[in-house]
Design a protein that fits this description.
Elements (H helix, E strand, L loop, with lengths): L5 E9 L5 E5 L2 E5 L7 E9 L3 E11 L25 H18 L5 H7 E5 L10 E8 L5 E6 L6 E3 L9 H15 L14 E8 L6 E7 L7 H8 L5 E8 L13 E5 L3 E5 L2 E5 L9 H15 L6 E5 L5 H7 L4 E6 L2 H13 L5 E5 L2 H15 L9 E4 L8 H10 L3 E6 L2 H13 L2 E9 L9 E8 L24 H7 L8 H12 L5 H10 L23 H13 L4
Parallel strand pairs: 3-5, 6-21, 11-12, 16-17, 16-19, 17-18, 19-20
Antiparallel strand pairs: 1-2, 1-4, 2-3, 4-5, 7-8, 7-10, 8-9, 10-11, 12-13, 14-15, 20-22, 21-22
């Protein structure tokens, strides 16, 4: 295969970044914008020895999963990688992405993954879900200010004020800013020269409160004739906060280190469930409130708090998960490196009248080990213990020092919330090698139309199923046990083996010759009134509906349950 070759190829797989994968005479091609099932014409742009990258020229035979994108810029824009794929297939792709990373990076077997994996939680309306958007500003060929999003893998701005993933108010706000810039000859920032004023516009929207924040990131300290802009913006219903954030650095960091209030207040408020949060321009806050409520609901469900637990929430941000947990826990300790976020977390605790949450500024990989060491010093060698530890790290995952301390503290449960299933798999491999086991794993689609997916995992500390105390006297004679019969007597006291979903699946496949899904087993157990333990939500209704087990499979499952003495 050579550069500039034109080939016809069938797309048979999807890469982790959403690109189509096809093969020509054994040679692998990665083709952006191609959908699994497509037959396409593609031009080879880069050719390696065994694989290459090609540009989609035209779709010869469209896939059954191909749909018309809602946004006209979907293919060019770097924001949506898979908008041309049906939403049902997007969820399958994200499920496979998590599974693939768990297998390749985590080293877990397919059987282990099947036993704990639950269906990805999708959205009913997978557009217009973002409560936050950051729009870069630039200049077109005629010298006019423009805003939109970067084209894929570039910093070339595609002029578009109406992003399909954002709220409808974004377009009106952006048009007002552009008009203000034109009328007052305010120039966009130029990355190449370092000149110009307006770099980005940050817009936040409270889905429940309807409050709106606008923050302009500027290459300077002042915004000329700001009152003219303010006059227009405050006419928009819900406008609550207008600020500027100075950023004169020559790098790719969007926000400055601080912000200044131009009008209103320096924050908006919004709710996740019944917990109210105060959100500033610099606050980290999940961008999809509908799915965030589901995500945090799963984290709370997995923690299964009874009211007497001490919980650590690492990488706590503004306390979003911490305050959720504090409603059910005895005490919650939150750790976050950003001082502003900790200030917000403390304020959010006050707003919600939560007094059992304490927050610390610092790196989680430093704060927790220091706390552990100090506790041991102050308590004469007694080690610190946590009942539950929740981690929600950035994409790089958890530092090994932090994981080591988590293991030392021996929490009964670890709830791991991840935005990158690759680093998640790496960290799960470490924790499972140190005495933990995965009980349940589930993806939550926080970012429809993109390749990203959140994952929440429950890990439990391994413990013996039961303990046996036996008093014996060895030797010959009445009441004594001959040495050669010890093994036989011990076998009689052996604890009953825990029956797993894997065991049930293997029994059915061996006896009946067909496979059954974990969800089918869980459904039968539920109908029989049996506890499901590691798959409590396996039969939750999916956005892509799952068929119920056939009578044949129901009977096979019941047979297996009888065989293992479950019923």
């Amino acid at each position: 295969m050579n550069k500039n070759d034109i080939v016809t190829v069938e797309i048979t797989d999807i890469g982790v970044s959403g690109e189509g994968i096809g093969h020509v005479d054994g040679y692998t091609l990665f083709i952006k914008d191609a959908v699994i099932g497509d037959v396409v014409e593609a031009k080879v742009m880069k050719a390696k020895k065994n694989y290459g990258y090609a540009r989609l020229m035209k779709v010869i035979t469209p896939s059954e999963y191909r749909v018309e994108p809602k946004c006209a810029f979907a293919r060019r824009c770097g924001g949506c990688q898979i908008q041309e794929m049906s939403y049902e297939r997007q969820l399958v792709f994200k499920d496979q992405k998590i599974r693939g990373n768990l297998e390749r990076i985590g080293g877990f077997t397919k059987e282990q993954i099947d036993a704990v994996m639950q269906p990805v939680v999708g959205m009913e309306h997978p557009f217009g879900y973002r409560n936050k958007a950051q729009f870069p500003f630039g200049t077109d060929k005629e010298g006019n200010p423009i805003t939109g999003f970067y084209a894929g893998r570039t910093h070339d701005i595609i002029a578009n004020t109406d992003c399909a993933l954002g709220v409808e108010q974004n377009q009106e706000i952006l048009e007002i800013i552009l008009q203000y810039m034109r009328e007052n000859k305010i120039k966009s920032y130029d990355e190449k020269t370092g000149k110009g004023l307006i770099r980005h516009a940050l817009i936040r929207y409270g889905f429940k409160t309807k409050e709106i924040m606008v923050c302009l990131v500027i290459n300077g300290k002042k915004l000329p004739k700001a009152e003219r802009l303010i006059e227009k913006l405050i006419q928009i219903e819900g406008m609550t906060s207008i600020t500027i954030s100075p950023n004169t650095r020559r790098d790719n960091v969007i926000m400055g280190d601080s912000y200044e209030i131009l009008w209103g207040q320096g924050y908006i408020t919004d709710y996740i469930g019944n917990v109210k949060y105060q959100i500033s321009p610099l606050s980290f806050y999940q961008v999809n409130p509908v799915q965030t409520e589901k995500l945090y609901g799963l984290a709370l469900e997995y923690a299964d708090l009874k009211g007497d637990e001490n919980v650590w929430d690492l990488y706590c941000g503004i306390g979003t998960i911490s305050l959720f947990l504090a409603q059910k826990a005895k005490q919650v300790y939150g750790v976050e490196i950003v001082p502003q976020a900790i200030d917000d977390a403390k304020e959010n605790a006050k707003i919600n009248q939560i007094d059992n949450a304490e927050f610390f500024v610092g790196k989680a990989e430093e704060v927790l080990p220091e706390y552990y060491a100090e506790y041991e010093r102050e308590h004469n060698g007694e080690t610190a213990h946590a009942d539950v530890i929740v981690v929600d790290p950035p994409r790089k995952g958890c530092d090994e020092t932090l994981l080591e301390t988590i293991v030392k503290m021996q929490p009964e449960k670890v709830v791991y919330v991840s935005c990158d299933s690759a680093t998640l798999a790496r960290d799960l491999k470490y924790l499972c090698a140190k005495g933990y086991e995965i009980m349940v794993c589930r993806g939550v689609d926080q970012f429809p139309q993109t390749t990203h997916v959140e994952t929440v995992v429950l890990l439990s500390h391994k413990k013996a199923d039961s303990y046996i105390h036996i008093d014996v006297e060895f030797g010959e004679g009445e009441g004594k046990i001959p040495v050669d019969s010890i093994a036989k007597r011990a076998e009689a006291y052996k604890p009953k083996e825990k029956v797993t979903y894997k065991m049930i699946k293997e029994y059915i496949e061996a006896k009946y010759g067909f496979k059954v899904h974990t969800a089918y087993i869980a459904e039968v157990k539920r109908n029989l009134g049996l506890p499901m333990y590691d798959a409590p939500n396996a039969v939750e209704e999916l956005k892509q509906p799952r068929k119920h087990p056939t009578p044949e499979k129901v009977e096979a499952i019941k047979d297996a349950l009888r065989y293992f003495a479950v019923i």
